[in-house]
Automatic annotation (TrEMBL):
It comes from Geovibrio thiophilus. Keywords: Aminotransferase, DNA-binding, Pyridoxal phosphate, Transcription, Transcription regulation, Transferase. Signal peptide: none annotated. This is PLP-dependent aminotransferase family protein. The keyword Transcription applies. GO terms for molecular function: DNA binding; DNA-binding transcription factor activity; pyridoxal phosphate binding; transaminase activity. Gene3D superfamilies: Aspartate Aminotransferase, domain 1 (3.90.1150.10), Type I PLP-dependent aspartate aminotransferase-like (Major domain) (3.40.640.10), Winged helix-like DNA-binding domain superfamily/Winged helix DNA-binding domain (1.10.10.10).
């Protein structure tokens, strides 16, 4: 922070670039000074300048072009509005789209050219080779690496997870933790002990379709509640539902929810947990994107506010290793019954992947990776947002997440994104159509876009083509 202005230096650099735009020194489409050039001129570090440029990119003022540098975006480009808060029916619904979701599962990851469909980072953005070396090293040092792991999970990994969370101000006792085969298994275990067929479970609307798959498998009804793309689940609707309905549990993503990317304000978190404590219902907190803020500190968890009414779930699937299928859950009250169900199904979680992740976390490389990957996510979301603003139809709305790597688009009401999806998939382009994110007949004009792919001219070309298909569908 500079003494004269009271602002951080990277903020002053942002203002300097914007002032050059106002005075005409920088023109739309023109290249701006390189990181090194600006750092030398202002006698500061390249890291500080990079932080300023990344923030300008996130805000849509500049864009990075591979091997070319940073360029000023057309300042006349339309800024797409955000979607408004959703308004689902307040009646619990049986989940009936399982077959459709399964069809999409088979095709979403199999597009021949590019997929914006599956919410996972490209392996090119992750330290895949380094993790493989870690696994080889860990297995060489563990003669019994091919043996069964203890049901609760590798103690060394649990210790490293606890240390990582504690470094972010979140206490997570290892004796209350279970390692699971992905976050979906953790949520399944939690629902299995909390509910029975015919019960109702609160979910945000729209919600991740993996949740509704689990609800379908367990015969549970989905009670969808209004959700705002910025602040998350509607508190008052939540209060009414807990008073009106015999709700057993809720699945809530407080940090950068999938698919809206919303972030529940800190001021609301304790109040939400108090509602559940009073009602006797339980929150299953899915914090899978919590490690991915675009800037600033990692947000808190609901689990911090109430260890009795919250079952905490998180995973490494979105940050480092989607295919390793390593997640964890914590609970003060329900550990024993969840442990029993784990023992009666998958028994344990794959040992070699746990060994590799424990080694990676212990090396300190995970923290360094996160610092870089957060910036990458912010930059990619900004690049996708700018391109969608250029190429998608008039009337399109788009979310502005402050973390994670997912965008939710709302096209004009007449659009049918399932039909657009089918056409796009024939051209080797994938995305997730909005209808699968609800148990109700909603979001037919919406789509979810995964931005965690390498950004280059080819990526922009396919995004442009997707925009053209949307234009074409609206004209028919």
């Amino acid at each position: 922070m500079t003494a004269d202005s009271g602002k951080f230096l990277y903020e002053e650099i942002q203002e300097l670039i914007l002032e050059m735009v106002k005075t005409g020194k920088l023109q739309a489409g023109g290249k701006i000074p390189s990181l090194r050039e600006t750092a030398q001129k202002l006698k500061t570090s390249v890291t500080t300048v990079m932080k300023a440029y990344m923030e300008l990119e996130r805000k849509g003022f500049i864009e990075s072009r591979p091997k070319s540098g940073y360029f000023l975006v057309n300042t006349q480009m339309r800024r797409l509005p955000q979607p408004e808060a959703t308004s689902p029916s307040p009646i619990p619904n049986p989940v009936s789209k399982f077959d459709l979701v399964m069809q999409l599962y088979y095709t979403m990851g199999k597009t021949s050219k590019i997929s914006f469909a599956v919410a996972e980072p490209s392996s090119k953005l992750l330290p895949t080779d380094e993790l493989a070396k870690m696994m080889k090293k860990a297995m060489a040092q563990t003669p019994n690496h091919s043996s069964y792991e203890t049901i609760g999970g590798l103690p060394e990994l649990k210790n490293q997870i606890a240390y990582h969370m504690l470094s972010n101000g979140i206490t997570m006792p290892t004796d209350k933790m279970i390692i699971t085969s992905g976050g979906s298994e953790a949520i399944y275990l939690a629902l299995k002990i909390l509910t029975k067929p015919g019960d109702s479970v609160i979910v945000e609307s729209p919600c991740y379709f993996g949740y509704t798959n689990i609800l379908h498998a367990l015969g549970i009804y989905a009670l969808e509640l209004p959700t705002h793309p910025v602040t998350g689940i509607d508190k008052e609707a939540l209060r009414r539902a807990l008073m009106r309905d015999d709700v057993k549990a809720a699945i809530i993503q407080p940090n950068y929810n999938n698919p809206l990317g919303c972030l529940i304000p800190e001021r609301d978190r304790q109040e939400i947990t108090e509602m559940f404590r009073s009602s006797g219902a339980v929150i299953i907190e899915d914090d899978i994107y919590g490690d991915l803020p675009h800037e600033g500190e990692r947000p808190s968890t609901l689990y911090q506010y109430d260890r009795e009414s919250v079952i905490y779930v998180s995973s490494f699937s979105k940050t480092i290793a989607p295919g390793y299928r390593v997640a964890w859950m914590c609970s003060e009250k329900y550990l024993t019954p969840m442990f029993k169900y784990k023992a009666s199904t998958t028994v344990d979680t794959v040992r070699p992947t746990q060994l590799a992740l424990a080694e990676y976390l212990a090396s300190g490389k995970y923290t360094r990776h996160l610092k870089k990957f957060r910036g990458t996510c912010a930059s990619l979301v900004a690049s996708f947002t700018n391109a969608i603003s250029k190429y998608f139809p008039e009337g399109t709305r788009i979310t502005r997440p402050k973390g994670g790597f997912i965008l939710w688009l709302e096209l004009p009401e007449t659009a049918d994104t399932l039909a657009i999806y089918q056409r796009a998939s024939h051209e080797g382009i994938g995305f997730a159509p909005g209808t699968v994110f609800s148990s109700q007949d909603k979001y037919n004009n919406c789509m979810r876009i995964n931005c965690a792919v390498v950004w280059n001219d080819e990526t922009e070309m396919y995004l442009k083509r997707l925009g053209e298909l949307c234009h074409k569908a609206l004209k028919e």
